[in-house]
Hints:
The chain is an alpha/beta fold. The mean pLDDT is 89.
Amino acid sequence: MTPPLIGIDIDDTIAFWPPDGVSLAVPEEDAVEVLQRWTEESIVRIVYITSRKQKRREETESWLKQYGFPRADHVLYEEDIPGGKPLALNQRGAFALVDDMPRTLEAAVAAGLTGYWHNIPKNGHMAPAASHPGLHPWQAWRELDLMVRLHVRAG
Length: 155
């Protein structure tokens, strides 16, 4: 059986990015390890999805490789997702989106995806409705790992 597909945002989800780009970015604690385990254990297939422009493709994909992030089915950039992240993921049959932006995740949930909100301090002022069904906040990658595994097992 083919593992389900999950969309993983890049900026402020797998790493905190300085304004000048990838030169100083380092992965979030446990992000590489969790994503590697998911692919090695066939828990999920990954598509990296970002609002970055195509002109940043080389530096972005080089950074992913440099830090050992697993290969993905796709890396989608802003120009690849004209209808937004939820539509792009639905078209590819994904079950969920992992992102740091509550509005994007609320749209994903409205489109039938599960949303995993990276609840980081800089986005606290944009918190989604606490009772928003289908939207699951998390802070540490190990916490997200457990949530996704439970979701996939439950089918």
